[in-house]
Write a structure and sequence with these properties.
This protein is α+β, with helices and mostly antiparallel strands. The protein folds into 6 domains: about 140 residues, Hypothetical protein af1432 (Orthogonal Bundle), CATH 1.10.3210; about 130 residues, 2-Layer Sandwich (Beta Polymerase, domain 2), CATH 3.30.460.10; about 70 residues, Beta-grasp domain (Ubiquitin-like (UB roll)); about 80 residues, no CATH class; about 70 residues, no CATH class; about 80 residues, ACT domain (Alpha-Beta Plaits), CATH 3.30.70. About 45% of the residues lie in helices and about 20% in strands. The chain is built from 24 helices and 20 strands. The strands form 5 sheets. Strands 1, 2, 3, 4, 5 and 6 form a 6-stranded mixed β-sheet that branches. A 5-stranded mixed β-sheet has the order 12-16-14-15-13. A hairpin with a 2-residue loop joins strand 18 and strand 19. Helix 14 packs across helix 17. The two termini are about 55 Å apart.
């Protein structure tokens, strides 16, 4: 900060004097804080040094995390407010600076960094000034074009505001309310943003100015009085419900409280009206400084830490996060190969706990793989989930390799591969889940030769001699007739999973990708975790599952009649007509044994698309519901996800 003043040839004392003037009214001890800025090792100078250090590490001044880190690291909100005011003073002073690169750099920082931090603290006046001054030097022509247009229309705008507020003022006085009103034009930066977003000129901006009604109310009646004004105005002028903002019921994080409405005034012009009390207006104008006067000083810090990558990218993590957490936060592959890290050139282990402001380089090795004890090192649920997933995938790959080894050894022994016989062998060895068997085989907890001997004995059983017949030593295979049981029916009964909610001992769930419901044709899929997922035969994943993992497919059938309710997601597309959503929800509410769990609707250019989640018990009831929804006027299509 001080260096940039020197580089620009600015008198640092005059900038500090201007900073103090800006801070007056915000902080009672502004003069003392400004004095500290000139002291080499004062708290304010240390705060400045911290900010400069953090900015030097970051490749992106626009990063939201950088703003949060600065707020967290500086800590004292008074020092933050001083830094904001200093940059306002700096921007006011650089008009005649010849070094255009330095001027642009400061303008970018003022707009992207300090204006956003001012907004977080509710310092709206300083935020608006920083944004406008930033625009003035970054978009010179646009700034002066808007400014000139506003000057040209000021007289007519003032007359319109007077005509608009006259009837309101009369009604409020008749209601016995104490208040004052003022109109203000939106900031140049705000108008420029709206022009870009709406692709219009200044004259086409939706709401160019706002009317503010400020009530003199006692604390206990503030909300009551604000809503009374709302009622009076909306009785006089048509309101736009999509543009209503209620920060009375739930104030903003920075303490801002107000009620914003947009109404259609004379000449069919939309006007924004802000309704608030004197106390709320003071907070809106002066942010946390005013908030402290009413609530007492509360310095809130972000819950978490911020760390940099070597390239300057900034990431937010939970307090207590380790090197391993950060590696998985960046990418699963990086986490799986992580061997440790470097902080400030010093090597640290994967267990090292990170601090805010650390610049971290993750060290990796192609030979590294996740370990079970990593679950005790990682602290975030995200990292733990990725580690568990990787461990399961490793186990599954090992099981797959074990299966291939078993099948290859079968070929070497000239044993025919027979799936039912192998399944009987596996269950005979005490394994209910196939993947558990292959994992045990991969980890050498089962001897492959023992498995092959058991399998061979089941595949080619030696018949026993009948009583009183020829002895086994003299017999030939052609002399015997083996009376086999109905193996096909036995296999059918053994291998079909009967889906029944009262079924004990088997972990099965309905697949979320296709949401089966009673009556759908289904099959079971043995997951790597050992459970069984029930899929519809028309599931979009069915083909891939059968081709890649055919040996994990289980036949499945529904037991008896339906009864349990299942979640089903429907996608609805149609015209955004008045009342169409009510018609849809009305049909669902009238259906017996169907419950609407959630609804999400998006509307664009007169069309809406939405998802409905309903609970129902069988596919027949589902098909009947879809047919009824398709009859609603305006509905174009209803499909099952």
């Amino acid at each position: 900060m001080f260096e940039i003043c020197t580089q620009m040839g600015l008198d640092i004392r005059s900038v500090l004097k201007l900073t103090e003037e800006i801070l007056q009214g915000e902080l009672e001890d502004s003069a003392e804080i400004i004095r500290q800025m000139e002291v080499e090792d004062s708290p304010v100078r240390r705060a400045v040094a911290k900010v400069e250090n953090l900015k030097s590490k970051s490749a992106n001044i626009q990063d939201e995390n950088l703003r949060a880190l600065i707020m967290s690291e500086v800590g004292d909100m008074k020092h933050i407010m001083t830094l904001i005011s200093f940059h306002v003073a700096l921007m006011r002073s650089i008009r005649d600076i010849e070094n255009l690169d330095l001027k642009r750099k400061e303008a970018e920082e003022a707009g992207y960094l300090w204006a956003h931090i001012a907004h977080q603290l509710g310092l709206y006046n300083l935020k608006r000034e920083l944004e406008d001054l930033s625009l003035k030097y970054l978009e010179h022509d646009a700034y002066y074009y808007i400014k000139d247009k506003l000057n040209e229309t000021k007289e007519s705008r003032d007359k319109y505001i007077a005509r608009f507020i006259g009837p309101i003022e009369k009604k409020l006085m008749e209601a016995g309310l104490r208040f004052h009103m003022k109109g203000r034009t939106k900031s140049i930066h705000s108008i420029w943003q709206k022009m870009n977003k709406q692709h219009v000129g200044v004259d086409g901006v939706y709401d160019l100015f706002a009317i503010r009604i400020i009530l003199n109310s006692i604390l206990e009646k503030e909300k009551q009085d604000c809503w009374q004004v709302f009622s009076i105005i909306t009785d006089m002028y048509q309101s736009n419900p999509k543009r209503m903002r209620d920060w009375l019921s739930v104030p903003k994080d920075n303490g801002y409280e107000s009620l914003h409405i947009t109404v259609l005034g004379p000449e069919e012009k939309w006007v924004e009206v802000q309704i608030r009390t004197e106390r709320m207006d003071d907070i809106a104008e002066h942010g946390l400084a005013a908030h402290w006067r009413y609530k007492g000083v509360k310095e809130s810090k972000d819950d978490g830490i911020f760390v940099f990558t070597p390239k300057g990218d900034l990431h937010k993590l939970a307090t207590g996060s380790t090197i391993l957490d950060f590696a998985y936060h960046i990418h699963s592959g990086l986490g799986n190969r992580c061997t440790g890290g470097r902080i400030g050139g010093k090597a640290v282990s994967i267990k090292h706990v990170l601090q805010s402001g650390d610049q971290v380089e993750i060290m990796t090795s192609a030979a590294q793989t996740p370990k079970q004890d990593w679950l005790n090192i990682a602290t975030s649920s995200k990292a733990k989930a990725k580690i568990r997933q990787s461990l399961k995938e490793m186990q599954f790959r090992q099981a797959l390799m074990a299966k291939e080894v078993l099948e290859r050894k079968m070929k070497n022994r000239k044993l025919e591969y027979d799936e039912p016989t192998l399944m009987h062998t596996i269950t005979g060895m005490g394994y209910k889940i196939v993947t558990d068997f292959y994992e045990a085989l991969a980890e050498n907890r089962i001897d492959v030769n023992t498995v092959l001997e058991d399998y061979s004995a089941r595949l080619n059983p030696v018949p026993k001699p009948e009583s009183g017949g020829i002895s086994a030593e003299r017999s030939k295979a052609t002399d015997f007739v083996l009376n086999k049981p109905d193996t096909e029916q036995a296999h059918h009964n053994a291998d079909v999973l009967v889906i029944d909610r009262s079924l004990k001992g088997i972990d099965f769930q309905m697949a979320k990708c296709c949401q089966p419901v009673y009556g759908d044709e289904v099959f079971g899929f043995v997951t790597s975790g050992g459970g069984i997922k029930i899929h519809r035969t028309t599931c979009p994943n069915a083909k891939q599952l059968r081709e890649r993992f055919g040996y994990r497919i289980v036949r499945a059938e529904w037991a008896g009649k339906g009864g349990s309710q299942y979640p089903i997601t429907l996608r609805v597309i149609g015209n955004d007509d008045l009342g169409i959503i009510n018609n849809i929800t009305s049909i669902i509410s009238k259906e017996e044994k169907i419950l609407l769990r959630s609804i999400s609707i998006d509307s664009v250019d007169g069309l809406f698309s939405g998802t409905l989640t309903v609970m129902l018990d069988d596919v027949g009831r589902l098909q009947n519901l879809i047919r009824k929804l398709k009859t609603v006027k305006g509905v174009k299509n209803v499909t099952r996800s």
